[in-house]
Specification:
Length: 187
């Protein structure tokens, strides 16, 4: 089967975009599969990590940004540490996910909550420099249409001093903002 996107300027642009975001080279991957063999989430994924890398290499943005795997990746970096070619696979998974978020790609229904959590988490870090748990949980519950989820745990955690009602922002949020501007400008 001939895929008409391969070899087009758009395909090259996608590959270059991912390389820029990870400050590396996906071209170095020679498809040995070691990354996928060690991935603890692989049995839930629709595409193995090495297959996602291959899609990036050949520039198939649509296929890469629409797969379930980029939302399920836990960022554990087992794949990255195993790669004989020092490809930053965990970062590639994240970079493709960022492209999907920027382009408004709807995650598959079965991982929609995971995608929502990722987005709410990143927004909290961008805003405060670290996560603000109550705000993040409320944001997630509202966005995922389950407003009372885990609500009973809030008072208990508060009484044990585990919950701050106001965010503790980092002193200098400039570097965090710059990271977001460079990596996920449209979040
Ligand atoms: S371990 Fe590295 S070289 Fe091997 S398939 Fe994965 S990314 Fe490619
Ligand atoms: S970082 Fe993601 S792709 Fe890599 S081993 Fe962990 S879960 Fe799998």
């Amino acid at each position: 089967m001939v895929v008409k996107e391969i070899g087009t300027p758009e395909a090259a642009r996608f590959r270059q975009d991912i390389n820029r975001r990870i400050a590396g080279q996906v071209e170095k991957c020679y498809q040995c599969g070691k990354c996928s063999a060690g991935c603890p989430i692989a049995n839930e994924m629709d595409l193995m990590p090495n297959q996602v890398i291959r899609l990036v290499q050949i520039g198939l943005k649509d296929k890469a940004t629409h797969c379930r795997s980029i939302w399920l990746c836990a960022g554990c970096v087992t794949c990255t540490t195993r790669c004989p070619q020092e490809v930053e696979i965990a970062s590639v998974m994240e970079a493709v996910r960022h492209v999907a978020i920027e382009e408004g790609v709807e995650p598959p229904p079965e991982v929609r909550h995971t995608a929502t959590f990722t987005e709410v988490f990143l927004r909290s870090v961008r805003r405060h420099g670290r996560i603000f748990e109550p705000g993040m949980v409320m944001g997630f519950n509202l966005r995922s249409c389950q407003p009372m989820k885990d609500a009973e745990k809030g008072p208990k955690m508060f009484l044990k001093g585990k919950l701050n009602l106001l965010p503790h922002r980092v002193k200098d949020r400039g570097p965090v903002r710059r990271i977001f501007q460079r990596l996920v400008p449209k979040l």
